[in-house]
Write a structure and sequence with these properties.
Order of helices and strands: HEEEEEH
Helix content: 25-40%
Structural class: alpha+beta
Distance between the termini: 17 Å
CATH class: Alpha Beta
CATH topology: first zn-finger domain of poly(adp-ribose) polymerase-1
Amino acid sequence: MNDAIGTLIRRKLRDGRLPLGNLSRVWRGRSEDDVCCAVCDEPITKQQIVLEGIVSLSDKPPKPIHFHIRCFELWTHAVAGRTA
């Protein structure tokens, strides 16, 4: 795992900015709008594939969360490592 992204993921998992799993649905496709990746905070442009899921973080209502494909893979790996 890229060390900088891994550190960022662990920090966001710890402080609740990223979920520890349990996305109710995930789908992929071209973004209709430019959105920001929940992992790296970089834009996901209309030309890139976006993975979008629905998540509930703490006591907030469900909301969409967006990932670059690679960032989603790294987040999934990090979450699996926390629960193993």
